[in-house]
Amino acid sequence: MVTLETKGISVSRPAKEGRRKSVANIPLGGSREPVKPVLDALEVRGVKVHSTTVRRIRGGFTGGTMVGERAIAWEIIQQDDASKKNNLYTVIAQKGLDTRRPQKPPKSYKFNAVGFVEGIARDLNIRPQVIRRLMRAMRVDMVYAERHEPDADFSQKFKYIANDFIEAYTKKDDNSTTEKKRQIMEEIRDQWTGSIEDFYRLIYSRLNVAAIGTWPPYEVEAFLEFYSKQIASGNHLTAFDKLILQARNQGRATLDLAAEVRASTGILVDDHNIEMHRNALLYAKS
Asked: Which of 76, 149, 163, 267 has its CA 20 to 30 A from that of 55?
């Protein structure tokens, strides 16, 4: 289970409170009451379970979290509401934009990546690894959006931001960038088609973890632009949101979904990234 509880910011499931009386606001009834009304109410929400599952939840033998989340996922799909996720990601992106600083002269054309994610995490009082995992989910969100809901203005904005990053690390007179990294960044610049997906495929296939870690101080500007646009346009679910929620509603294994997303985007997501993005949609508070 992924948990994030801090200073009013939360991406976590509600704590269990003993034996459940309901699942996703569906009353479970007493142990001697018929199970069929509960099964019917769940099925309306796209969730089919065996009668034994309801009896076990009633009796406290199983928590019912999975069943409840499957039903909540269906409800959010029907509502077409990504506001919880968008608000949370906007807070993180804005904090990153407020936190980033240029390096000291003569390298002031670069943003300082050392301790950048840690600074965001410290200000929000959460673990840096949580921020990193959420950022990977945000990258996938942008790639799927470009593929399924293209926005020419945002794609152009992303190009400007990514080009600033590439230019900063391809300067010939910069001895703080290793020759190897400079050559790789030049190859990325020359091979990049201009799409968001292609950019991430290139950096994940060509750069090591430390080198990719120099990108977030630039990337937060793209995140803020993207999620501000999502909020302004009505907080509709993105293609990635729908994929995540439909997979949960259908009871699909998170590991399998993560493998599909990795193959589809080139971004190295795992089950933790998938679960955190899902929890942002279901439970986030900001």
From this structure: 76
This prediction's pTM: 0.87
User: Count of H helices and E strands in the chain?
Assistant: 14, 4
Q: Is 129 exposed, middle or buried (0-12, 13-18, 19+ CB in 10 A)?
A: exposed
Q: Which of 85, 143, 154 is nearest to 269 (CA)?
A: 143
Give the 3-state secondary structure of residue 13: coil
From 277, 159, 172, select the one nearest 218 (Cα to Cα).
159
Q: What value does the mean pLDDT take over residues 244-258? A: 94
CA distances 35 to 22, 27, 67, 72, Å, are: 13, 11, 15, 20
- DSSP assignment of 206-225, as one string? HS-HHHHTTSHHHHHHHHHH
Mean pLDDT, residues 42-61 taken together:
85
The structural domains of the chain, with segments of one domain joined by +, span: 5-79, 83-283
> Amino acid identity of 286?
S
